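Lecture 7 notes: from sequence to structure.

We start with a single chain of 277 residues. Read the sequence below before looking at the structure.
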Amino acid sequence: MSSLPAHSGAARGAAPPGEGAHRERARGVLAHASLGVLGLVAILAFWAAGVAVLARHNALAAQFGPLAALQTFPSLITDDRLFAHIGASLRRIGVGLAFAMAIGVPLGFLIGRVKALETALSPALQFLRMISPLSWMPIAVMSLGVGDPPVYFLLAFAAVWPIVMSTASGVQHIDARWVQLGESLAATRAEMLWHIYVPGIAAHVLTGVRLAIGVLWIVLVPAEMLGVSSGLGYLILDTRDRLAYSELMAVVLVIGALGFLLDHVARQLYRRFGAQR
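Now the structure, written as tokens:
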């Protein structure tokens, strides 16, 4: 009887079964984040060292350093115009991605479903995919004028290819037993599409969207140099023309941070909707 209280006290003092696993996950997340921060610090250190070497021969180079950019960053953040430029760039990204998905998902689905169509279109699509979207800049301006339309065209052209290829791959990798099950249950085409194909290709489509966002963000800056008066690409030109090089580098940091956040959102969407399939 005397051992029972001691045992009960030990049980009361013991950690819940899931607490240890929770702590292990927390330590893993912390270690992962620490390594990421360390990598960013290393990049900043190399950046500062390179600028310091160049500044020995050219005093102007000091304005391109991380310290000058970080000093300019607070005033840039408090400027309402920056958020207007960010909003314009994000709007163009959204429109370009929407056009790319509206074209890429149905086309990729047809290519994945119809073997003859894949055979007929693959050479042409591979040829077009290898042309840099920026090569179309003069044609886009002559055809669509200046402003947002040519930017939308260039962004959609850049983003459509990973979506097409990922969607086609997803259709081709759907388990044939799912299709046979749907057909054996006399499912309609709409039911097959919604209950078989959409869940089956969701992960692949989201992978294509994530790749497309990365391409879009790279093409966005030069595309916004096509006569528009807003956007981060325009802001790069504006700071260059004003010789505000430290502000230019601060805008570069903003572009990198926003691109990182967009990729993070795409990854979270994949984990939420794609990894469950």
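Residues 210 and 266 are 5 Å apart (CA to CA). Keep this in mind for problem set 3.
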